Amino acid sequence: MSASINEIGAVNTRRPAAARAHRVLVDIFLAGLAAQFFLAGLGVFGADRHGNHAFAAAASFAAHRTVGNALILLSVVIAVAALAGRRMIRQSLALAVLTFLQSVWTKVGSSAPAIGSLHVLGAFAITLLAFVMHRATHDRRPSSDIDYGAHRAPDVPARPTADPRSTRPRSAKRSDPTR
User: Fold this and answer.
1) Which domain holds residue 56?
2) Does 82 map to a domain?
3) Residues with Cβ < 8 Å from 77, sequence gap 6 or more?
4) I want to staple 79 with a disulfide (CB 3.0 to 4.6 A). Which of 35, 91, 96, 106 is the partner?
5) Is residue 51 part of a domain?
6) pTM score, whole prediction
7) pLDDT by residue for the chain (179 residues), tens digit each?
């Protein structure tokens, strides 16, 4: 196992392990999100439309609720791993907060549909954030090598005005087209 040196020069062996754990946990979370979309669809199309109970409380959403609760716990573990590994702390905390808000929006949504509709937008935001975190944790380059500035072309002359091997200017027409 490789060790890293922290800001005060002490060897920190937990950081690489925490970063690896964070990467694996984010991947598991992303797979859980894919399952959540499937289970939400299963809940919608399997719900009893003739009953007088709330749609979100339908028994067909039980698996969606269970996996959602597991994802809330997993997002907290991801935040702890981010703090231990000192990487992606803000994104991990935002993931935990958004994931927790999903259950709030569902509970409030039965009486306030506009608030409940945030559950779908929250799922989109969580998926986008989790995918960005996945991409960032799987980037093979060290963060010091990543150029966040504008992409610039290397310093290459636009076009030479004359052929350096001849005295003829580049714009002069050639007499032999096969050359």
Assistant:
1) 12-141
2) yes
3) 25
4) 96
5) yes
6) 0.65
7) 444 444 444 444 457 888 889 999 999 999 999 999 999 988 888 766 645 455 656 778 889 999 999 999 999 999 999 998 888 999 999 999 999 999 999 989 888 889 988 999 999 999 999 999 999 888 765 554 444 444 555 555 555 555 556 555 555 555 665 65
Separation of first and last alpha carbons in the chain:
61
What letter represents residue 54's amino acid?
Answer: A
Helix H, strand E, coil C: the string for the chain is CCCEECCCCCEECHHHHHHHHHHHHHHHHHHHHHHHHHHHHHHHHHCCCCCCCCCCCCHHHHHHHHHHHHHHHHHHHHHHHHHHHCCCHHHHHHHHHHHHHHHHHHHHHCCCHHHHCHHHHHHHHHHHHHHHHHHHHCCCCCHHHCCCCCCCCCCCCCCCCECCCCCCECCCCCCCCCC
Is residue 49 one of the residues assigned to a domain?
yes
Tokens of 126: 């969580």
Provide the token pair at 58. Answer: 């339908």
Q: Establish if 174 belongs to a structural domain.
A: no
| Domain count of the fold of the chain | 1
